[in-house]
Design goal:
This protein has a single domain, classed as Diphthamide synthesis DPH1/DPH2 domain 1 (Rossmann fold), CATH 3.40.50. Helix 2 crosses helix 3. The protein is α/β, with parallel strands linked by helices and about 100 residues long. About 30% of the residues lie in helices and about 20% in strands. Helix 3 links the parallel strand 1 and strand 2. The strands form two sheets. It has a three-stranded parallel sheet with strand order 2-1-3, with helices on one face. Strands 4-5 form a two-stranded antiparallel ribbon. It is globular and about 35 Å long.
């Protein structure tokens, strides 16, 4: 894994740590699974450490493959996680009025 700080990673990716931590706190999640695409896996431990420290939860990193937002690991139920956070390279917008997903 690459030794980059959370600030250095944030310069390259919009990882939305505040949003993730807020969602964890709002849902009172105690166990959180982070799922990364291959290109972000070198930064996964730094991101996980930041989330764990700020949200006060236990964080797991899914090291298996991830082929997009619909690729939720079947084994996640066995871990007993309360929340899955998926990271990706593409921005997605969800239109609540039309229920349509579209890429930026």
């Amino acid at each position: 894994m690459e030794n980059k700080t959370i600030n250095e990673i944030s310069e390259k990716y919009d990882i939305e740590i505040d949003k993730i931590v807020g969602n964890i706190m709002e849902n009172k999640a105690k166990k959180v699974l982070l799922q990364f695409p291959e290109g972000m896996k070198p930064y996964s431990t730094t991101i996980a450490d930041e989330v764990e420290e700020r949200a006060g939860c236990e964080v797991f990193i899914w090291i298996g493959s991830c082929f997009g937002a619909c690729d939720v690991p079947l084994e996640v139920e066995k871990l007993g996680v309360d929340l899955v956070v998926q990271f990706g390279h593409s921005a997605w917008k969800y239109d609540l009025t039309n229920k349509n997903l579209s890429t930026n």
